[in-house]
Every structure is written in structure tokens, then in C-alpha cells.
């Protein structure tokens, strides 16, 4: 499949693929950080907003929200979910807002969709221009040097009488500015077991399994490199990737939450 095939051709499965994510908890956590570190304004933009689940929760928290994505089918679903919000079809690496905002979020490691350092720099500059004074930019990131290529995350779901297995994992070759996010969706008429591997070698005739696989090329940075890119524009705070509590990054974990205050 092409680099965006899972998100375009199978956009109807996107929410199911992310059904294990606690969007409300993530949104509430960033709201608290904005109260502590930001200007506490209520104008919000969600980059790579997808079908709008985070936007929905920020609206419920009292924000005036906008969403931005490069995928029109996703935005169509977001508009149905959040009719109060404004949505725009734009590339987050070079976007423009007519009215600045107080809080910009980019969840689910989507900051890495800036596929290359120069495009990441452009994204950061676009964010800085779009923020009001004292506004904050919040996103999560993975450090390329701490990626374990052997690891992946899998979860299972049921929808319209079918059983689904979703799997994702990072891969970094050890050099260069690109890493990949490897994704797969398996759809079957029979339940998948937690123990069974779902791969291209599965007995698809016996289980009537359809399999989609995709590899997304994404920008690879270390946290130190990312801090250096952000420093000209922001006061940077790094926290543990924990939406239940606010804890400074322990300097060793490979996932972190960046909170960047406009300077």
C-alpha cells in the first residue's frame, strides 16, 4: 500500500484502530499543562487532528477549536463529530491561520509526520507564527536512539460482525533522519487470540482474514536534537509520557511529552 493508504482507503477504521486510546485523559492532561504553563487562553488548534476525538474533548473543556489535517475523509468525519469547530485541509509543515491561537496540540506522535528535518523546522516555525504570546505547543515524541525495533503494540476490536487486530511498531536503522512506523490491520470473521500472531503467513483461507500493511516514513530525531530545533522559538519543558500525572522526564525513557511556551 502507499504511504497513506491505511489512513485514506481505510479511514472508516481509523477510530477503531485507535479505540484503546484515552482521548479524554490526554486532552484533560494538556488542559492542565496549559493552565500551569500557558496563557490560559481558549483558542485551540489540533494539528493532524484525524477524525477529531481530541477536538471534541477540548470543546467540552470550553475551548474554541480548530483542526488541521491533510486527509479530507478524516476531516469529513471530524466535522460530523465536532460541528462547532473549524477544520482546514492543510499540511502541518507549512500552515497558516488568519487568527492566532493560545494552544496548539499534536497528539499520537504525529509531529513525526514532518518527514525530514527541514520540514520539521518548517512545522515548528509555522506553529510559532500561529501562537499568541505565552501560548504553548504540546506534542509527544519518540527518541530515535531509544527505539527497539523488536517491539510492537497490538490490540483487538470488534466492529459490524468482524474481528480486527491492529499492530504498530517503530523502526529506526540507526542512522539518518528517517524512521518508519509500521502498521497492519487484520480483519477476520473469527476472533483473533491474544497469543496468535497475525501476519502475512497466516492461514487466510481457514480464517477468512484480510490483511493490510503499511509503512510510514517519518522524521527521526533525538530529544536533544529536537530541543535544539525548538530552542530559538520556545521555552521547552519535557515531561514523562504519562497523562495521569505531571512528572519531569527521567532522562532515560524513549517517549516524552514536550510542552513548549512561546518566547
UniProtKB/TrEMBL annotation:
CDD domains: AdoMet_MTases
Entry-linked Gene3D superfamilies: CAC2371-like domains, Vaccinia Virus protein VP39
Single biological process term from Gene Ontology: methylation
Transmembrane feature ranges: none
Keywords linked to the UniProt accession: Methyltransferase, Transferase
UniProt KW Plastid keyword: no
Keyword Transmembrane helix included in the entry's annotation: no
Chain ranges of the Methyltransferase domain: 45-135
One function term, GO molecular function aspect: methyltransferase activity
InterPro entries: Methyltransf_25, SAM-dependent_MTases_sf
A Pfam family: Methyltransf_25
Protein name as annotated: Class I SAM-dependent methyltransferase
Biological source species: Shewanella mangrovisoli
